[in-house]
Amino acid sequence: MKKTLIFLLLISAVISQRRISEEAKIFNLTKDKVFTVFANGHGSGFLFDETNGLVLTNEHVISNAKSISVQIDENTRIEAQLIKKDNRKDLAVIAIHPDFVKNIIGLTIAVKSDTMIFVGERVIAIGSPLNQVRTLTSGIVSNIEQETIISDVNINPGNSGGPLINMIGEVVGINTFGDITATGPGLSGSIIITEANEIISNAVAIASQSNLSLSKKLLPVMPKDKFPFDALEKAVLTEFHNKDYKLNAGKFKITFITPPYLYNAQKAKSLRLASKRESTIRKSDEFSGVFSDLKNWTSSVGQFKPVVWVIVEPTKGETNESGKSNACNTLFGEYVNRTYEFKSDVENFVLKKNGKPIEPIIQNYRNTTLDFNLSDYYGTYSGEDLAQYGYFIYPIDAFLPDSNSFSEFSFDIVNHIDNQTVTFLIPENIINKINVDFEPYTGDRTGLLAYKEPVGVFKGYRMLCGALMVFGLLIAAAGA
C-alpha cells in the first residue's frame, strides 16, 4: 500500500510539471478558422470575415481552376466563389456561404507596426499539407524582407494559403513557398500580411455591396476509413483484365482505377519475383516483403482510400502533314521522318449517372508534354506538344446500384482543340467490375452477380478449339 501511494505521488508530480505550450494554446484557439481549399489540387486558406464568409488564400492555389470548394471540417465541403485575386502578389480572396461559418469568428489580422513581427519570434503555421488536415508546425522567424517572412517553420505542398500566426494569435503572414536545398531542410517563405491589406479591403467592399449567389450545397468529402487490407492482399493473386478498366473514347483514353486494381498493378511483379525463391525459403516467409505496406498507419498518409479514380488522357498520333509526306516512303521502304502530336486536349470532363452530373471529391487538370527525338536505321521520330489531362476522385456511393440494378453511366468531354463536346456511354461491365472490386468494402453483391469476365485472345482460342473438338466428336458419333 505504501509503495502504491509513493508511485501515485511520483506520477502526480510528473503530471503537475507538464505544461501546455503557447503553440498548443494558439493552435487550439485558431485551428477551426483554417480550411482546406480544393481547386486544381488542394491548398489551405483562413477565414478573416465571418459576416461575408471571406477566406484568404494564395492565388496559385485557385489559379485557372474550373471550380473551387472549401472543406470547413471533416464532414463539410461547400462550393466557393472567387471574389478578388492579385497574380503578382499571389493572393486571392474566395467566399463561402456565411451560414456555414456563423459560429466561427475570423482570424485576427495583425496591424502594421514596428513591432508587428521581428526576427527570433516564435510562430506557428496551420494548414493541410500533403495528405494531412489542420496540422501544426512551429519555428522561429529567421529573416524579414519587404514582402516576405522567412522562417524555419516546416511547410509542405498543401500548406500554401494557410496562416502564419504569432504567439498572441494574430496572422502575420500567408504561407506560400519553400526555399529548399538538396543538402538540408531548407527554409519557408510567407507573404507578410500587410501585402494583403488592399485585396482584403477590396474583397470586403465587393462582398458587402454585391448580392453574391453562394451555394449551400454539401459536396462529397474524402472517406475517413480505408479499404480492407485482406481484399487488397487477395487482389494481388487475382487476374485483372484491362478491358474492365480502360476505355477508348474517340480521341481520349479513359482509365477507371479501384484500390484492388491499383494494388495488383503495384504488387504483381513483386509477387512473381518472390515466388521464384519458393524452393529456398520457408513458405510462411515467402511473401513477407510483398505486403509490407499493408500497415494500419498507411491510412494516415492517404493510401488505400475506398474511392474510384478516373484518369482522362489525350491520345497521341502522327501529324497529318507527317503522315502524308511519309506515305510513299513507307510504301517503298524508304527513310522516314515522323512527327507526332496530341490528337486531343482535355478542356472539361463530367461524369454522369442517368444524365445527372456526379460531383467528384477531387478534380484536377494538369499539363502533360510530348517531348522526344529518336532515330534508327529506318528513320527519325520526334514530338513536341503540350496538352491537358485530368484526374478525378469519386465516392464509391455514386457507383452503387439503385434497387438491385445499375443506372446508365456516361461522361461528357470537351476537346480544347476544337471546343467540341462528345458524350460516351460507359459499358455496363465496367460499372459491374467496379462494384465487384468494392464488394469487400460495401457488402453489395449486385456487381458480382452481373459481371461477365472478358474473353481474352488465348482463352477465346482455347474455347474455339474446345468447341471444334466437341463438334468433331458429335459429327463422328452421328456418322457412326
Note down, in words, how this protein is organized.
By secondary structure, this protein is α+β, with helices and mostly antiparallel strands. It folds into 2 domains: 22-219, Thrombin, subunit H; 229-450, no CATH class. It contains 10 helices and 25 strands. The chain has helices at residues 2-17, 22-30, 59-62, 197-209, 229-236, 259-275, 320-331, 428-442, 446-450, 457-479, and strands at 34-39, 41-49, 54-57, 68-73, 76-86, 91-95, 108-109, 122-127, 135-144, 148-151, 163-165, 170-179, 187-192, 218-219, 246-249, 252-257, 307-314, 316-318, 336-342, 346-353, 356-357, 362-375, 379-395, 409-415, 420-425. Strands 15, 16, 17, 18, 19, 22 and 23 form a 7-stranded mixed sheet that branches. The chain has a 6-stranded antiparallel barrel with strand order 1-2-3-6-5-4. β22 (362-375) and β23 form a beta hairpin. The radius of gyration is 29 Å and the shape is globular.
Q: What layout of secondary structure does this protein have?
A:
Elements: H1 2-17, H2 22-30, E1 34-39, E2 41-49, E3 54-57, H3 59-62, E4 68-73, E5 76-86, E6 91-95, E7 108-109, E8 122-127, E9 135-144, E10 148-151, E11 163-165, E12 170-179, E13 187-192, H4 197-209, E14 218-219, H5 229-236, E15 246-249, E16 252-257, H6 259-275, E17 307-314, E18 316-318, H7 320-331, E19 336-342, E20 346-353, E21 356-357, E22 362-375, E23 379-395, E24 409-415, E25 420-425, H8 428-442, H9 446-450, H10 457-479
Parallel strand pairs: 7-12, 19-23
Antiparallel strand pairs: 1-2, 1-4, 2-3, 3-6, 4-5, 5-6, 5-14, 8-9, 8-11, 9-10, 10-13, 11-12, 12-13, 15-16, 16-17, 17-23, 18-19, 20-21, 20-24, 22-23, 24-25
Helix pairs in contact: 5-6
